[in-house]
Please model this.
Amino acid sequence: MKKFISKVILFLIGLVILDQLVGIGARYLVGHAKGGDTGLNNYICNQMEEECIIFGSSRGMHHYDPNIITDSLDMSCWNCSLDGNGIILMYGRYKMLSARYTPKMLIYDVQTSFDLLEGDNHKYLGGLRYYYDRQGIDSIFWNVDKTERFKMMSNCYRYNSQWLQLISDNIHPLQSNDKGYKPMDKTMTYKPKKTLLKEEYKYDSLKLYYLERLVKECKAKGTQLVFTISPQYASHNDDVYKPLKEICSRYQVPLLNHYCDKDFVDNSDYFYDSVHMNRTGATKYTKMLVGELRTIRNTK
Model:
């Protein structure tokens, strides 16, 4: 029996050592990434000092050209949006970058699926796992799932399924971008199927909580927050954005709502698909938006 217990103890010690080695190796790869998603994340969280930053999901990534914003507003600009993500990740990014410096302006493109409506919030933690030990990040995990407090103690869990990405970003990064902006160069060639409008929406209380937290922290730090809703093909009803409108009204935050803008939504030449604009649409939209942003900045 004693021999069995001894073997179990040695086995557990071995697992702990292995887990520590995994952590050392993974942190090295994260810190030395040459580019790709890992390198981009590192820049945003560790180095970025641009005056104007853009947050959002894929619509934020593909619809806002930071070069146009820089030329028009005379502010350095970087697009920090990330495909398939929303406020839970973006709030974490703001916590990290605002600990280093205070951006002058934050443009946040709000997308219903990732910022307002109910869904599986676990998937938004992936972009924060590398930075779990930073101040204020661990509580985001706990608010999504209380068991994450214990799971994240394991390096094997923390870096699970990330190894191919980490190795690729250290050897030969595959992803390219223009200050975080990734334009789409094809034009939609099909007619999207019409879907029935939902009359009732299930809103996510945690997402709304972090939207309000972002508003309050931007105000406290002196960052001009501007919420935006970019055009979506064939959209003629924006009722789903009601909670965002209420937040903007309550805290007096500018909302530039072009979700149903007739100059865009009925013209397929501006769209890559039914949700995303192509480069042509994004360029026209960004040029139009900077006029509104200039007014907001001058008013302030």
Q: What stands out?
A: The chain has a mean pLDDT of 88. Strands lie at 52-55, 77-79, 105-109, 224-229, 255-257.
